[in-house]
Write a structure and sequence with these properties.
Number of helices: 21
Strand order of the largest sheet: 5-4-3-6-2-1-7-8
Distance between the termini: 76 Å
Shape: elongated
Low-confidence stretches: 79-84, 86-91, 334-413, 415-448, 571-577
Helix content: 25-40%
């Protein structure tokens, strides 16, 4: 009897789903790609529970007739490819025929669609790959597609989905990339009935990027326009001095398709060689256009990777484009006498969003600020223009969930929300709230039994670079005074049960944040106040910092605050860890510098306080506070025999 057999279609679709659907963000991308291919002018995305419970995309594109609405659910069905030769010249975004049937096989899928020239539309309901109902009814032109209860029939796979916050972060980043790639298309995004963002259609790339990534960032980005052989490079790159601590802000698009490509990443770093410090990365928003036959987009099931026929040519084009833009910037700066060079490194201004909290900015289609005209103006002019714009100031007002509306008369309007049959009730335990990781609630330092080995250290002398040399019964000890002080300050902050005292700034600082960062800062304002930060919103995504924790060093304060905002944006961490990261940043700024000379009394006091901490051997960031060089090592080095 043969051991080899043909898999059942339902099983093969589930296997394909495992490749195509990495997480809810993959479903968002498939739905939006199809909407863009349908030439939609406006696209609205709705999610619930980070996409665990629902992903819904509504567009005003061309729609489908009844036959196509059913055919798109068949395996390997696609309107994008007709022959084998078409695989080599794919212009559309969604082209894999297994995507929709795979999604339908592991979710509760509903399709509502109607073409412009037809009087009736089609409603198809699918449960776990089985078509349950087909109806003809009057709908809006376009497509309204939703997938609920994702992986309801694959509990083992469902367990691998991350927390709601993490999945929302991936979805937001996906929408951000798609909205940047298609500035002519309007996007609207709702998470759990809260409007997260709205960008109008028919924008320039610079306007779209300013709204999504932040105006301050775009003011420090340099335009790129370059052609090398058949490769065209355009977009924006960071001016010298503007860096991030990760590559998340390096966004690359190949033929309007967001991708992650090592060739391009290496070319960016080559272009900035000797212009930035090691370990940091310049933000970029680069669009590569090259002939279809020169790039293979059929490499990865999720289409997030590509393969170039000539990697060397592409890398050279990106590198030369950036070098040329930097050269023009330097030449322009040489002609200026009163304009300062851009400020020192600013840590990453992340666009990861949180799932809980107030909505971020939403611009109306009626009134738009001319961002192209004001991006180069001083901050005060931008502030005045923003505060005079009702569409921007309105972003500070909570936006109510959408109400059911009548069918629009204009075909360019998005279809009104249509009631979707309620998904099967899933116990809330499936979507647990984030657990609080085990941490320590340390008692006051004075109540902690001191570590005798540290308390008994005898300070011999301070040495260069902020180190202290001490002796112990086991050898010589080198202490990093800054790391030791960070540990002490960290545990003092962690022990406090009341609000940290604040000291006012002589000159308050203004921050113009990206919408998603603004969303997170708004959520955390009360916690920041408890930690001693006086941070107030004064409209839209702008904040004023008027006070910092007492003892907080104010050198490069703006850079440090961006670092703190970055810590707040790391939603893939558990809350206890995020709180510790914030305290670590504050402790670092409240600590002595490596250049500061401590008196003998201050040295002894530092050691005594360090001895009473719960974890005296490492600073809050995990670096050692002290290192022992044992006498046994000395004996070995000096050739002594025991």
């Amino acid at each position: 009897m043969s051991k080899i057999r043909i898999l059942d279609e339902a099983i093969s679709n589930r296997i394909a789903a495992g490749e195509v659907i990495e997480r809810p963000a993959s479903i968002v991308k498939e739905f939006v790609d199809n909407a863009l291919d349908a030439e939609a002018e406006k696209i609205a995305i709705y999610i619930e529970k980070g996409g665990h419970r629902l992903v819904r995309v509504v567009d005003n594109g061309s729609g489908m007739d009844r036959e196509d609405a059913l055919m798109c659910l068949e395996a390997h069905a696609t309107s994008k490819i007709k022959s084998a030769e078409d695989i080599e010249r794919i212009f559309t975004l969604g082209f894999r025929g297994e995507a929709l049937p795979s999604i339908a096989s592991v979710s509760h899928l509903q399709i509502l669609t109607q073409m412009e020239e037809q009087n009736k539309g089609t409603k198809v309901v699918v449960r776990g790959g089985i078509i349950e109902s087909i109806e003809d009814l009057e709908l809006n032109v376009g497509t309204d597609i939703s997938a609920g209860n994702i992986f309801f029939n694959m509990p083992a796979r469902k367990k691998f989905l991350r927390t709601v916050q993490t999945e929302e972060a991936h979805i937001h980043e996906m929408i951000l990339a798609l909205a940047l790639a298609h500035p002519k298309t309007g996007f609207e995004y709702w998470a759990d009935k809260r409007k997260v963002l709205k960008v109008p259609s028919n924008q320039t790339l610079r306007n779209r990027a300013a709204l999504l990534l932040g105006r301050n960032l775009m003011r420090e980005m340099l335009p790129v326009k370059y052609r090398h052989s058949s490769v065209k490079v355009s977009g924006f790159i960071a001016a010298p001095g503007l860096t991030r601590s990760s590559r998340k802000e390096q966004r690359v698009f190949v033929n309007n398709r967001p991708v992650v490509d090592r060739t391009v990443q290496m070319a960016i770093m080559d272009a900035y060689q000797s212009r930035i410090s090691k370990g940091v990365h310049p933000p970029s928003l680069l669009f590569l256009d090259l002939p279809i036959e020169e790039v293979d987009i059929n490499v990865h099931p999720s289409k997030k990777e590509v393969r170039f026929r000539s990697e060397h040519q592409v890398g050279a084009a990106v590198r030369d484009a950036i070098i040329e833009a930097l050269r023009k910037f330097s030449a322009a700066k040489l002609k200026e006498t009163d304009t300062p060079i851009l400020s020192t490194n600013v840590q990453k201004e992340s666009n990861i969003m949180s799932s809980s909290g107030s909505p971020s900015t939403a611009l109306s289609d009626d009134k738009q600020v001319d961002l192209d005209a004001i991006l180069e103006k001083p901050w005060q002019e931008i502030t005045d223009k923003v505060l005079d714009s009702p569409s921007l100031v309105a972003s500070a007002i909570p936006i109510q969930p959408p109400k059911p509306a009548a069918i629009p008369t204009k075909q360019t309007d998005l279809p009104a929300p249509i009631d979707i049959p309620a998904p099967i009730d899933i116990p809330e335990a499936i979507y647990p709230e984030e657990e609080k990781l085990p941490g320590f609630d340390a008692p006051e330092l004075s109540q902690v039994k001191p570590h005798e080995d540290i308390l008994n250290l005898k300070i011999l002398a301070p040495i260069e670079q902020g180190y202290l040399l001490a002796s112990s019964p086991n050898g010589l000890v080198v202490i990093d005074q800054r790391a030791a002080h960070e540990r002490v300050e960290f545990e003092k902050l962690k022990n406090k049960q009341k609000q940290v005292s604040s000291q006012g700034l002589l000159f308050p600082l203004t921050f113009d944040l990206a919408p998603t960062v603004s969303n997170i800062v708004t959520q955390q304002q009360e916690q920041l106040k408890q930690l001693g930060f006086e941070l107030e919103n004064f409209g839209g995504n702008s904040f004023i910092l008027s006070g910092v924790p007492a003892g907080f060093q104010q050198e490069n304060l703006k850079q440090v605050m961006h670092q703190l905002f970055d810590e707040l944006s790391e939603t893939n961490q558990h809350r206890a860890t995020v709180q510790d990261d914030r305290l670590a940043v504050i402790a670092s700024r409240a600590s002595v510098s490596t250049k500061q000379k401590l008196s003998s009394i201050e040295q002894e006091s530092l050691i005594a306080e360090l001895a009473r901490t719960q974890m005296p051997y490492v600073c809050p960031r995990g670096n050692p506070t002290l290192i022992l060089y044992s006498y046994a090592e000395f004996d070995k080095k000096f050739g002594r025999k025991k």
